[in-house]
Amino acid sequence: MHSRPASRRATFLALTVTGASYAIALAVLARDPDFSLVEPLFLLALLGGVFPLLAWLCTLGVSRAQIAPLHEPHQLPRVLLYLAGFTLLVLGWGFSSINAHFPGEPAQSLVQLVVKLVTMVLLPAWLFLGFGPGARATLPPQRLLLVFALMSLAYLAMQSVFGRGLVTLGELGPSAATLAWAIPLCWLWQTLEAGLCEEVLFRRVLQEKLAIATGSHVAAIAWGSLLFGLAHAPGLWLRGGHLMEGVAQASPGWALAYSIVMIAPAGIAFGVLWARTRSLWLVVPLHGMVDLLPQLAPFIRAWSGT
């Protein structure tokens, strides 16, 4: 068990380092004369402030005593080593190789899904969870369903107003019949491909082990969100992710900075939800809902040949 002063020191260290990392990354991106500070600061306020606050409000009534105790063995070094190897070998080299060998859809997406399930769910569960019983949820199913509904509506509203998903969908112009099958299937696909894979690895495994090591849920959320962002850097650099962000050429430094500033804040609200509910039944389908609108048009193109 960690003493309260030790947990406070761990929290202070995590917030200091992650805050400094964000400031440095923002300064790196700001050297580009075409880069505007408005979008990242707005994103930080929204995803790093508003949505975590909403997640906390939705889970009011979960006291500190109700949060399941941190009883699992300390495995953080092994988890970090696995995450580093996964980030470089799978998200970097592996997916680049898959894209080269399977350029067409839906074959490319299917192969990527299989690789993700193996490396982000099955292997971590075997290595670090022992396929044992999952964490016990702190809220009853009815309350979890309410939290899911409220958070889903908030994320869909945000994506509708500030995201590019509806614009891309409008450019594609799918029929009502196409949308009737594409919307539920895309949500199910994103729940499996993004929700299950990322939430098991980054919340159930990484954040849980960080909480055990630090004795602080706040520190675990901060470190976990930073690492969640950094894990996306290889894709931005090696797989052409920078082109989707309007950047013609990407350096490793740019990819690291962009992943911290633009992607890491997205993990904060999910970290709060996991710490307070410890329910994959909540965070996994909610993650699928978050990715629904941005991925709907690409999903239709991949599976309908449009």
Automatic annotation (TrEMBL):
Domain CAAX prenyl protease 2/Lysostaphin resistance protein A-like: from-to ranges: 183-292
Keyword S-adenosyl-L-methionine listed: no
Pfam annotation, one family: Rce1-like
Entry GO MF terms: endopeptidase activity; metallopeptidase activity
N-terminal signal peptide: none
Superkingdom assignment: Bacteria
This protein's name: CPBP family intramembrane metalloprotease
